[in-house]
Automatic annotation (TrEMBL):
Catalyzes the condensation of carbamoyl phosphate and aspartate to form carbamoyl aspartate and inorganic phosphate, the committed step in the de novo pyrimidine nucleotide biosynthesis pathway. GO terms for molecular function: amino acid binding; aspartate carbamoyltransferase activity. Residues 177-325 form the Aspartate/ornithine carbamoyltransferase Asp/Orn-binding domain. Pathway: Pyrimidine metabolism; UMP biosynthesis via de novo pathway; (S)-dihydroorotate from bicarbonate: step 2/3. This is Aspartate carbamoyltransferase.
Protein backbone atom coordinates (compact mmCIF):
# COMPACT_ATOMS: atom_id res chain seq x y z
CA UNK A 1 0.00 0.00 0.00
CA UNK A 2 1.37 3.41 -0.92
CA UNK A 3 1.92 6.08 1.69
CA UNK A 4 -0.18 9.30 1.76
CA UNK A 5 1.33 12.05 -0.35
CA UNK A 6 2.96 14.92 1.54
CA UNK A 7 1.67 18.41 0.90
CA UNK A 8 3.67 20.21 -1.78
CA UNK A 9 5.39 23.51 -1.10
CA UNK A 10 3.37 26.09 -2.97
CA UNK A 11 6.46 27.87 -4.25
CA UNK A 12 7.99 24.79 -5.91
CA UNK A 13 9.12 25.65 -9.43
CA UNK A 14 10.10 23.31 -12.24
CA UNK A 15 13.14 24.76 -13.98
CA UNK A 16 12.84 25.20 -17.72
CA UNK A 17 15.62 23.43 -19.57
CA UNK A 18 16.35 26.24 -22.07
CA UNK A 19 19.14 24.17 -23.61
CA UNK A 20 20.96 23.65 -20.31
CA UNK A 21 20.36 20.24 -18.72
CA UNK A 22 23.12 20.41 -16.10
CA UNK A 23 21.84 19.17 -12.72
CA UNK A 24 18.21 19.79 -13.77
CA UNK A 25 15.27 17.75 -12.50
CA UNK A 26 13.32 16.16 -15.36
CA UNK A 27 9.69 16.09 -14.23
CA UNK A 28 7.48 17.15 -17.15
CA UNK A 29 7.47 17.96 -20.85
CA UNK A 30 6.40 21.44 -19.72
CA UNK A 31 10.09 22.08 -19.02
CA UNK A 32 11.11 21.57 -22.65
CA UNK A 33 11.24 23.65 -25.80
CA UNK A 34 12.30 22.68 -29.34
CA UNK A 35 15.85 23.92 -28.73
CA UNK A 36 16.28 21.63 -25.73
CA UNK A 37 14.85 18.60 -27.52
CA UNK A 38 17.09 19.29 -30.51
CA UNK A 39 20.15 19.31 -28.25
CA UNK A 40 19.03 16.06 -26.64
CA UNK A 41 18.48 14.43 -30.02
CA UNK A 42 21.91 15.51 -31.30
CA UNK A 43 23.48 13.96 -28.22
CA UNK A 44 21.47 10.78 -28.82
CA UNK A 45 22.72 10.68 -32.42
CA UNK A 46 26.30 11.01 -31.19
CA UNK A 47 25.85 8.19 -28.68
CA UNK A 48 24.38 5.87 -31.31
CA UNK A 49 27.31 6.57 -33.65
CA UNK A 50 29.82 5.86 -30.88
CA UNK A 51 28.06 2.63 -29.93
CA UNK A 52 28.07 1.47 -33.55
CA UNK A 53 31.82 2.10 -33.66
CA UNK A 54 32.22 0.09 -30.41
CA UNK A 55 33.51 3.17 -28.60
CA UNK A 56 33.77 2.90 -24.83
CA UNK A 57 31.56 5.49 -23.18
CA UNK A 58 32.56 6.71 -19.71
CA UNK A 59 30.50 9.84 -19.09
CA UNK A 60 28.99 8.31 -15.93
CA UNK A 61 32.20 6.74 -14.66
CA UNK A 62 32.26 7.16 -10.88
CA UNK A 63 28.56 8.08 -10.77
CA UNK A 64 25.86 6.16 -8.91
CA UNK A 65 22.20 6.43 -9.96
CA UNK A 66 19.40 5.33 -7.63
CA UNK A 67 16.46 3.65 -9.37
CA UNK A 68 13.52 3.84 -6.95
CA UNK A 69 10.46 2.15 -8.42
CA UNK A 70 7.38 2.13 -6.20
CA UNK A 71 5.36 0.74 -9.11
CA UNK A 72 6.02 -2.33 -11.30
CA UNK A 73 8.25 -1.78 -14.32
CA UNK A 74 10.44 -3.84 -16.60
CA UNK A 75 11.15 -1.73 -19.69
CA UNK A 76 11.70 1.66 -18.05
CA UNK A 77 13.60 0.15 -15.12
CA UNK A 78 15.74 -2.04 -17.37
CA UNK A 79 16.27 0.77 -19.87
CA UNK A 80 17.60 3.16 -17.22
CA UNK A 81 19.80 0.44 -15.70
CA UNK A 82 21.22 -0.36 -19.13
CA UNK A 83 21.74 3.34 -19.93
CA UNK A 84 23.70 3.97 -16.72
CA UNK A 85 25.89 0.89 -17.10
CA UNK A 86 26.61 1.51 -20.79
CA UNK A 87 27.97 4.91 -19.72
CA UNK A 88 30.26 3.38 -17.09
CA UNK A 89 28.09 4.22 -14.08
CA UNK A 90 26.60 2.07 -11.34
CA UNK A 91 23.06 1.73 -10.01
CA UNK A 92 21.27 1.25 -6.72
CA UNK A 93 18.22 -0.71 -7.78
CA UNK A 94 15.11 -0.93 -5.59
CA UNK A 95 11.97 -2.34 -7.17
CA UNK A 96 8.63 -2.43 -5.34
CA UNK A 97 9.92 0.17 -2.89
CA UNK A 98 6.71 0.07 -0.88
CA UNK A 99 7.53 -3.44 0.31
CA UNK A 100 11.30 -3.64 -0.07
CA UNK A 101 12.31 -0.54 1.90
CA UNK A 102 11.54 1.41 5.05
CA UNK A 103 8.43 2.72 3.31
CA UNK A 104 6.84 -0.52 4.49
CA UNK A 105 7.53 0.71 8.03
CA UNK A 106 5.75 3.99 7.39
CA UNK A 107 8.61 6.17 6.14
CA UNK A 108 7.48 9.17 4.08
CA UNK A 109 8.37 9.62 0.42
CA UNK A 110 10.39 12.73 1.26
CA UNK A 111 12.47 10.92 3.86
CA UNK A 112 13.11 8.02 1.48
CA UNK A 113 14.35 10.47 -1.15
CA UNK A 114 16.57 12.32 1.33
CA UNK A 115 18.20 9.04 2.36
CA UNK A 116 18.93 7.91 -1.21
CA UNK A 117 20.13 11.40 -2.09
CA UNK A 118 23.06 10.70 0.23
CA UNK A 119 23.85 7.48 -1.62
CA UNK A 120 23.69 8.67 -5.22
CA UNK A 121 24.36 11.32 -7.84
CA UNK A 122 20.82 11.25 -9.27
CA UNK A 123 17.49 9.61 -8.49
CA UNK A 124 15.12 8.04 -11.01
CA UNK A 125 11.67 7.54 -9.48
CA UNK A 126 8.47 5.81 -10.50
CA UNK A 127 5.47 6.14 -8.21
CA UNK A 128 1.76 5.31 -8.54
CA UNK A 129 0.55 8.76 -7.43
CA UNK A 130 0.37 11.85 -9.60
CA UNK A 131 2.65 14.62 -8.34
CA UNK A 132 5.05 12.27 -6.58
CA UNK A 133 8.01 13.23 -8.77
CA UNK A 134 7.60 16.89 -7.78
CA UNK A 135 7.58 15.93 -4.10
CA UNK A 136 10.75 13.89 -4.67
CA UNK A 137 12.40 16.84 -6.41
CA UNK A 138 11.47 19.12 -3.51
CA UNK A 139 13.00 16.70 -1.03
CA UNK A 140 16.26 16.20 -2.98
CA UNK A 141 18.24 19.40 -2.59
CA UNK A 142 21.62 18.26 -3.95
CA UNK A 143 20.92 15.72 -6.72
CA UNK A 144 18.61 15.80 -9.75
CA UNK A 145 15.42 13.75 -9.86
CA UNK A 146 14.08 12.14 -13.05
CA UNK A 147 10.40 11.25 -13.31
CA UNK A 148 9.99 7.71 -14.66
CA UNK A 149 6.21 7.89 -14.34
CA UNK A 150 4.01 9.43 -11.64
CA UNK A 151 0.62 7.74 -11.58
CA UNK A 152 -1.69 9.22 -14.20
CA UNK A 153 0.50 12.31 -14.48
CA UNK A 154 3.43 12.18 -16.91
CA UNK A 155 6.20 9.98 -18.24
CA UNK A 156 8.63 12.48 -19.77
CA UNK A 157 11.44 10.11 -20.74
CA UNK A 158 8.97 7.89 -22.62
CA UNK A 159 7.75 10.93 -24.53
CA UNK A 160 11.35 11.86 -25.34
CA UNK A 161 12.05 8.45 -26.87
CA UNK A 162 8.72 8.59 -28.72
CA UNK A 163 9.48 12.03 -30.15
CA UNK A 164 12.95 10.89 -31.14
CA UNK A 165 11.46 7.86 -32.92
CA UNK A 166 9.07 10.09 -34.87
CA UNK A 167 11.94 12.45 -35.68
CA UNK A 168 14.08 9.55 -36.95
CA UNK A 169 11.36 8.62 -39.42
CA UNK A 170 10.19 12.03 -40.68
CA UNK A 171 13.24 14.27 -39.93
CA UNK A 172 10.92 16.83 -38.34
CA UNK A 173 8.46 17.25 -35.49
CA UNK A 174 6.20 19.86 -37.05
CA UNK A 175 3.47 19.63 -39.68
CA UNK A 176 2.55 16.09 -38.59
CA UNK A 177 -0.83 14.41 -38.21
CA UNK A 178 -1.11 11.44 -35.89
CA UNK A 179 -3.53 9.20 -34.04
CA UNK A 180 -3.41 8.41 -30.33
CA UNK A 181 -5.68 5.56 -29.27
CA UNK A 182 -6.67 3.75 -26.09
CA UNK A 183 -6.66 4.97 -22.49
CA UNK A 184 -6.15 8.71 -22.81
CA UNK A 185 -7.52 9.44 -19.35
CA UNK A 186 -4.94 7.46 -17.39
CA UNK A 187 -2.15 7.21 -19.97
CA UNK A 188 0.77 9.27 -18.68
CA UNK A 189 2.76 8.44 -21.81
CA UNK A 190 -0.01 10.06 -23.85
CA UNK A 191 -0.11 13.16 -21.67
CA UNK A 192 3.61 13.76 -22.07
CA UNK A 193 3.68 12.96 -25.80
CA UNK A 194 0.90 15.41 -26.63
CA UNK A 195 2.69 18.09 -24.60
CA UNK A 196 5.84 17.39 -26.59
CA UNK A 197 4.11 17.58 -29.96
CA UNK A 198 2.34 20.79 -28.91
CA UNK A 199 5.74 22.53 -28.83
CA UNK A 200 5.87 22.41 -32.64
CA UNK A 201 3.80 24.16 -35.30
CA UNK A 202 1.01 22.77 -37.47
CA UNK A 203 0.62 19.43 -35.70
CA UNK A 204 -2.76 17.70 -35.39
CA UNK A 205 -3.83 14.65 -33.40
CA UNK A 206 -6.87 12.43 -33.64
CA UNK A 207 -7.80 11.04 -30.22
CA UNK A 208 -9.51 7.64 -30.36
CA UNK A 209 -10.88 6.37 -27.05
CA UNK A 210 -14.02 5.23 -25.29
CA UNK A 211 -15.93 8.24 -23.92
CA UNK A 212 -15.06 7.26 -20.37
CA UNK A 213 -11.32 7.25 -21.16
CA UNK A 214 -10.96 10.54 -23.00
CA UNK A 215 -8.18 13.02 -22.30
CA UNK A 216 -8.68 14.77 -18.91
CA UNK A 217 -10.77 17.90 -19.44
CA UNK A 218 -8.27 20.36 -17.97
CA UNK A 219 -5.41 18.90 -20.00
CA UNK A 220 -7.57 18.87 -23.12
CA UNK A 221 -8.49 22.53 -22.69
CA UNK A 222 -4.88 23.59 -22.08
CA UNK A 223 -3.39 21.62 -24.96
CA UNK A 224 -6.12 22.54 -27.46
CA UNK A 225 -4.72 26.08 -27.36
CA UNK A 226 -1.42 24.82 -28.77
CA UNK A 227 -2.23 21.85 -31.01
CA UNK A 228 -5.23 20.71 -33.04
CA UNK A 229 -7.00 17.87 -31.18
CA UNK A 230 -9.89 15.95 -32.75
CA UNK A 231 -11.79 13.43 -30.64
CA UNK A 232 -13.19 10.38 -32.44
CA UNK A 233 -14.95 7.27 -31.12
CA UNK A 234 -14.63 4.74 -33.93
CA UNK A 235 -11.94 3.35 -36.23
CA UNK A 236 -14.09 4.31 -39.21
CA UNK A 237 -13.38 7.96 -38.39
CA UNK A 238 -9.61 7.51 -38.72
CA UNK A 239 -8.07 9.43 -41.64
CA UNK A 240 -5.90 7.40 -44.00
CA UNK A 241 -3.11 9.98 -44.35
CA UNK A 242 -1.73 9.83 -40.81
CA UNK A 243 2.00 9.94 -40.14
CA UNK A 244 1.81 7.71 -37.07
CA UNK A 245 -0.53 5.59 -34.97
CA UNK A 246 0.23 5.60 -31.26
CA UNK A 247 -1.73 2.81 -29.57
CA UNK A 248 -1.94 2.32 -25.80
CA UNK A 249 -3.40 -0.28 -23.44
CA UNK A 250 -6.34 0.32 -21.13
CA UNK A 251 -4.71 0.56 -17.71
CA UNK A 252 -6.32 -2.06 -15.52
CA UNK A 253 -4.42 -0.90 -12.43
CA UNK A 254 -6.18 2.49 -12.52
CA UNK A 255 -9.68 0.97 -12.26
CA UNK A 256 -11.39 0.46 -8.89
CA UNK A 257 -14.17 -1.56 -10.54
CA UNK A 258 -13.03 -4.59 -12.55
CA UNK A 259 -16.33 -4.75 -14.43
CA UNK A 260 -15.82 -1.20 -15.71
CA UNK A 261 -12.37 -2.22 -16.94
CA UNK A 262 -13.77 -5.23 -18.79
CA UNK A 263 -16.28 -2.99 -20.60
CA UNK A 264 -13.53 -0.95 -22.25
CA UNK A 265 -10.62 -3.41 -22.42
CA UNK A 266 -9.47 -3.95 -26.01
CA UNK A 267 -12.17 -1.68 -27.37
CA UNK A 268 -9.74 -0.77 -30.16
CA UNK A 269 -7.36 -3.36 -31.62
CA UNK A 270 -4.78 -3.07 -34.38
CA UNK A 271 -5.04 -6.08 -36.67
CA UNK A 272 -3.58 -6.49 -40.17
CA UNK A 273 -7.04 -5.82 -41.59
CA UNK A 274 -7.19 -2.38 -39.98
CA UNK A 275 -3.69 -1.56 -41.23
CA UNK A 276 -4.75 -2.45 -44.77
CA UNK A 277 -7.98 -0.50 -44.53
CA UNK A 278 -6.81 2.64 -42.74
CA UNK A 279 -3.02 2.65 -43.03
CA UNK A 280 -0.67 4.08 -45.63
CA UNK A 281 2.77 3.21 -46.94
CA UNK A 282 4.72 5.88 -45.10
CA UNK A 283 3.25 5.82 -41.58
CA UNK A 284 4.67 4.17 -38.46
CA UNK A 285 2.84 2.18 -35.78
CA UNK A 286 3.89 2.92 -32.20
CA UNK A 287 3.11 1.62 -28.72
CA UNK A 288 4.79 2.46 -25.36
CA UNK A 289 4.36 -1.16 -24.17
CA UNK A 290 3.37 -3.34 -22.46
CA UNK A 291 0.59 -4.37 -24.79
CA UNK A 292 -2.28 -6.45 -23.49
CA UNK A 293 -4.12 -7.64 -26.57
CA UNK A 294 -4.57 -4.30 -28.33
CA UNK A 295 -2.06 -5.12 -31.09
CA UNK A 296 -2.37 -8.39 -32.96
CA UNK A 297 1.11 -10.05 -32.95
CA UNK A 298 0.77 -10.52 -36.72
CA UNK A 299 1.34 -6.76 -37.04
CA UNK A 300 4.84 -7.12 -35.54
CA UNK A 301 6.28 -8.24 -38.88
CA UNK A 302 4.97 -5.17 -40.69
CA UNK A 303 7.92 -2.87 -41.44
CA UNK A 304 5.83 0.07 -40.22
CA UNK A 305 5.57 -1.41 -36.71
CA UNK A 306 8.37 0.26 -34.73
CA UNK A 307 7.42 -0.41 -31.09
CA UNK A 308 9.90 -3.28 -30.75
CA UNK A 309 12.39 -2.39 -33.49
CA UNK A 310 12.93 1.30 -32.69
CA UNK A 311 11.11 2.51 -29.60
CA UNK A 312 12.65 -0.06 -27.24
CA UNK A 313 16.31 0.57 -28.21
CA UNK A 314 15.66 4.32 -28.49
CA UNK A 315 14.62 4.23 -24.84
CA UNK A 316 18.16 3.25 -23.86
CA UNK A 317 19.85 5.72 -26.24
CA UNK A 318 17.77 8.77 -25.29
CA UNK A 319 18.14 8.02 -21.58
CA UNK A 320 21.89 7.71 -22.06
CA UNK A 321 21.84 11.13 -23.70
CA UNK A 322 19.69 12.64 -20.98
CA UNK A 323 21.84 11.33 -18.14
CA UNK A 324 24.98 12.52 -19.90
CA UNK A 325 23.63 16.03 -20.35
CA UNK A 326 22.43 16.21 -16.73
CA UNK A 327 25.51 14.76 -15.05
CA UNK A 328 28.48 14.96 -17.40
CA UNK A 329 29.53 15.38 -21.01
CA UNK A 330 30.52 13.05 -23.86
Amino acid sequence: MTQPMEAKRLNFFMDKINGNFKKKDILSLDQFDPKSLSKLFRTTDTIIRKLKRKKRLTSLSGKIIALLFFEPSSRTFGSFASAVKRLGGQTIEVQDVGRNSSVAKGESLSDTIKVFESYSDAIVIRHPEKGSAKIAAQAATTVPVINAGDGTGEHPTQAILDLYTIYQKFKRLDNLTGLIAGDLLNGRTVHSLIKGLSLYKKNALYLLSPKSLGLPTELMNNLAKKIRLVEIENETDMPTNLHFWYWTRVQKERFKNLQEYKKVKNRFIIAPELVVKKGNQHMIIMHPLPRVGEIDPRVDDDERAVYLKLQVPNGVYTRMALLTLILSRL
